[in-house]
Amino acid sequence: MPDIRRQIFAYSGVLKPVPGGRDTTSLVEYGIGLADARSRTRLCYIPTAVGDSREAVDFYTSAYADQADVEFSVLRLFTQPSVPDVRAHLLGQDVILVEGGSVVNLMAVWRAHGLPQILRECWEAGVVLTGSSAGSLCWHLGGPTDSFGDSLAPFTDGLGFVPYSNGVHDDLDDQPRRRVYRELVADGQLAAGYATEDGVGLHYAGTALQEAVSVLPGKQAWRVEPDGSGGYAEQAITPRLLNSSHPRPRVLTARIEAVALRLARSEPRGQSAPGGQLRPGRDP
Question: For the segment 83-134, what is each residue's pLDDT rounded down to a tens digit?
């Protein structure tokens, strides 16, 4: 039986949304919808991976603070925690949403503040853990990153709540993520794991992959593992295509897209626009 109490939804955001098409918003909403919430879903947004960027915080605050069915909060860690009791605050949530950006910096700051143990407690207590890019990698053992520099390198300091590596934005055309992830798995620098193309998410129940879902047609998830002879073996996982209807009013989605576009045009390398819509040449 799947362990439906401990849930993680790890996804690759839609980096290049088509006007009028599906975007990362639908993946965020899917993650929120996994919570066994009462009348209002308690959602905490953690933007550590973008250095608690004010615009990133404003982005999600504008999106969710006025939603009647969401009780929205933000946990900032720069320059000190924004809530008096981090553990109590996070354990009181239904969903924890982690922003993309630098996964290396994310984990360093989290470890300094004791978040790995707190987040494990949250997961075991039934809080849904979700996020895009760095917010996907962090729940796994590791994956390729350009947090260290321009070239992709192995990141192996993830929380490991699920015992797999993770390749995000597997079909990105301006970085060799697909090739590098498979090479790192083949030579043992990364454990076997799962890769997601843009718009695809992995829903874990306990430590088992329950299903892959997508907001874009024709996209894939992949199981990648060593083949025992210095190479790799891969198996395509066809995701379930999520309903095209927007759970939130379309005006909200339009607002999110507008803010993401401004961030994508202004952020320095190594940071991501909220929701995974990143400027070219960035990382998780």
Answer: 999 999 999 999 999 999 999 999 999 999 999 999 999 999 999 999 999 9
Q: Are 99 and 272 in contact (CB under 8 A)?
A: yes
**SS3 (DSSP) at 14:** coil
Residue 258 backbone phi and psi in degrees, to 5: -65, -45
- Using CA atoms, how far apart are residues 221 and 194, in angstroms rounded to an integer? 7
- Smallest CA-to-CA distance from 274 within 96, 67, 53 is with 53
Q: Please list the active-site residues.
A: 133, 169
Distance CA 86, CA 114 (A): 9
Exposed (0-12), middle (13-18) or buried (19+): which is 228, by Cβ within 10 Å? exposed
Query: Strand 232-237's sheet: what is its strand order?
Result: 165-167, 193-196, 221-226, 232-237
Q: Report yes or no on whether pTM surpasses 0.85.
A: yes
Which domains does the chain carry? 7-276 (3.40.50.880)
* Cα–chain center distance at 199: 11
Alpha helices in the chain (DSSP H): 24-33, 54-64, 86-91, 103-112, 115-124, 134-137, 177-186, 250-266
Q: What is the DSSP letter of 254?
A: H
Count CB atoms within 10 A of the CB of residue 19: 6
> What distance in Å separates the CA atoms of residue 131 and residue 75, rounded to the nearest whole number?
14
Give the pairing type, strands 193-196 and 221-226: antiparallel
